[in-house]
Amino acid sequence: MMIESRRKILHLPAAVQCLALLLITSFAFQICVSASDVIYYEPFDESFEGRWVASQKDDYKGVWKHSKSEGHDDYGLLVSEKARKYAIVKELDQVLSLKDGTVVLQFEVRLQDGLECGGAYLKYLQPQEAGWQPKEFDNSSPYSIMFGPDKCGSTNKVHFILKHKNPKSGDYVEHHLKYPPSVPSDKLSHVYSAILRPDNEVSIFIDGEEKKKGNFLSGDDFEPPLIPAKTIPDPDDKKPEDWDERAKIPDPKAVKPDDWDEDAPMEIEDEEAVKPEGWLDDEPEEIDDPDAAKPEDWDDEEDGEWETPKIDNPKCEVAPGCGVWKKPMKRNPAYKGKWHAPLIDNPNYKGIWKPQEIPNPEYFELEKPDFEPIAAIGIEIWTMQDGILFDNILIAGDEKAAESYRLTAWKPKFEAEKEKQKAEEAVAGLSDGLSDFHKMVFDLLYKIGDIPFLDAYKPKIIDLIEKGEKQPNITIGIIVSIVVVILTVFFRILFGGKKPAVNASETNTNASVGTSNNQESSEEKEHEDEKDDDAAAPPARRRPGTRRDQ
Questions:
Q1: HSE-up of residue 382 (Cα within 13 Å, Cβ side)
Q2: Closest C-alpha among 48, 86, 54, 83 to residue 66
Q3: 3-state per-residue secondary structure call for 176-198
Q4: Residues 461, 387: one domain?
Q5: Tag placement on the chain: N or C end, fewer CB within 10 Å?
């Protein structure tokens, strides 16, 4: 029967074939996936009103809409306006514990108008205080996990942040997954998956491909680490006054040579130089523009005294030069600079002083993270772009169930969008878009940008890649630039120049600490700073012939 149905489908128009196959696949999928594996699923096939509650706080003016994905009949939750704050929440029927078994957090996002500055992440909320109502949802509502794309200025990452309660202090601390993957730069639908496993591992997938794996209890994977250091530098320990940290010192027995002239200049006039024949001594390099005229509406009181603008002297273009000729300078062979005694090993060198280590009073042991349960799913973002479409939000207790949803709900859309994109590029010509070769190159460059030891240079690398995507003809230059960055890192590693290490105790004590009464994400504060960076520059000096306000 299934074979016969497929044969009949082949005789239908292409669009109808795709729809029919999708319906059959979805039907088969519903049979294969056990309902017990799916904890929560939101396809947004119907209006979200009545199930999702938009925040009524004054800050959140953005309007959510139930809208089709561009080019599809599939609906999603749409960010409809630019430069707005948005907040909406859905309470789960039952509170979900993250302490037992595997949990998959998965959702789709399509950045239909791109993303220059904004978030597209979800917050998985803790149970709120008694009396809390969904319409009160805002950035201070405590969450357990924050997961998803975020991009603005130097930030370009798929966040995974765990908010974990310190059992000693009672404070909630934001623990950020280190070296998260970058956000895909196209306008296609992408599916993001975070898999929390009972062996303390977490994996981040984009479109079914694992991009990052970490261990909750590893200090190499989360910043700050969930488990504090056993020891910390003694804050009361002081460096002895006679402690000498100089590895090398000037040789006290060295004497400046008698013929060393410290006053000799670095450069001197070239006495052998001769003025080039044809040099125009009496001609200035710039002359008044003979075609310039004072504007009729020029007001000397408001605009200042009008000056004729200058242009390059055309006579100087055919001559070796204009103006008073001066002999060029050359390096002084007698120049030696200031004399310094040569360095020798310091006999009193004791090494770099460090305070002694003492037991960390904040240290605690942990076999598993003490996850806060999930009681609701919230989207609370500030974005400068509209067109962000959320779809197919899933919480599952089985990786295969999440994979099935990804293959049936997301994959057909993604493939259709890719084909449409290729067709549009073919019509526009490869010169107006990215060829398959360019895409392959830029995909590779994005992976290079995600290499952990290049993390300090990641914003610069991502910026170069995005410029290359907009101007494919400069791809080779982009590759060369990134190679230069990588070589620079290697040379710094080989020959020194590393940044000083951050004090572990300072990191644990000061970074990302907040109580349940102050839950605003540091990433959101960072966005606010970046959006306010475009301050007015000081006015440039006025050029002749221009008004004061130009």
A1: 15
A2: 48
A3: EECCCCCCCCCCCEEEEEEEECC
A4: no
A5: N
Q: Which residues make beta-bridge pairs with 91? A: 376
Chain segment 30-64, per-residue pLDDT in tens: 434 455 689 999 999 999 999 999 999 999 999 99
In degrees and rounded to multiples of 5, residue 419 shows phi and psi of -65, -40
- Whether 166 is covered by a domain: the verdict is yes
Return the H-helix or E-strand segment holding 401.
helix 399-405
> Are residues 387 and 120 in contact, defined by beta-carbon separation less than 8 angstroms?
no
pLDDT in tens, 317-351: 999 999 999 999 999 999 999 999 999 999 999 99
Enter the tokens of residue 42.
């939101």
Instruction: Supply φ then ψ for residue 483, to 5 degrees.
Output: -60, -40
Does residue 339 contact residue 262 with C-beta atoms inside 8 Å? yes
Do both 432 and 407 map to the same domain?
A: no
Pairs from 209-215 (Cβ < 8 Å, separation ≥ 24): 211/158, 211/181, 211/450, 212/160, 212/177, 212/179, 212/180, 212/181, 214/177, 214/178
Residue 252 in any domain: the answer is no
Q: Does one domain contain both 400 and 434?
A: no
How much is the pTM?
Answer: 0.65
Torsion-angle region of 444 (φ positive above 0: left; ψ -120 to 50: alpha; else: beta)? alpha
Distance CA 66, CA 79 (A): 9
Terminal-to-terminal C-alpha distance of the chain? 77
Report yes or no: 392 and 410 within 8 Å, Cβ to Cβ.
Answer: yes
Q: Which of 193-197, 363-367, 457-461, 469-473 has the lowest mean pLDDT?
A: 469-473
* 383 and 483 within one domain: no
Report how many domains make up the chain: 2
Phi and psi based region of residue 387 (left: phi greater than 0; alpha: psi -120 to 50; beta: remaining): left
Tally of residues, the chain: 550
Let me know: does 380 contact 59? Beta carbons within 8 Å.
no
DSSP E strand boundaries for 18-83: 38-42, 53-54, 64-68, 75-79
